Amino acid sequence: xxxxxxxxxxxxxxxxxxxxxxxxxxxxxxxxxxxxxxxxxxxxxxxxxxxxxxxxxxxxxxxxxxxxxxxxxxxxxxxxxxxxxxxxxxxxxxxxxxxxxxxxxxxxxxxxx
Length: 113
Hints:
By secondary structure, the protein is α+β, with helices and mostly antiparallel strands. The chain has helices at 31-39, 44-58, 82-97, 99-108; strands spanning 10-13, 20-24, 67-68, 75-79.
């Protein structure tokens, strides 16, 4: 039996300006993600941004000083605050690894299934 490949979120420090990049590659084998992307005419990066902001609001994490810049199916954002970046990483990885949390954030974000 072959399992689906999952890519987790990472935080990396820029050698250019010292800020932190929070990024998540495309999730290649997630049917639920593909269904939402197709239904709402979004790119994966945009979907992850919406779900991250919903998760941040739900956990009372202030992301107002984060610069969001999804690049197609890749989620990308920038922050000068390492701790904030790590908290965002935690939310995104929870979305990927915990289907119940993912479904809850989908509902809280206003998507209709």
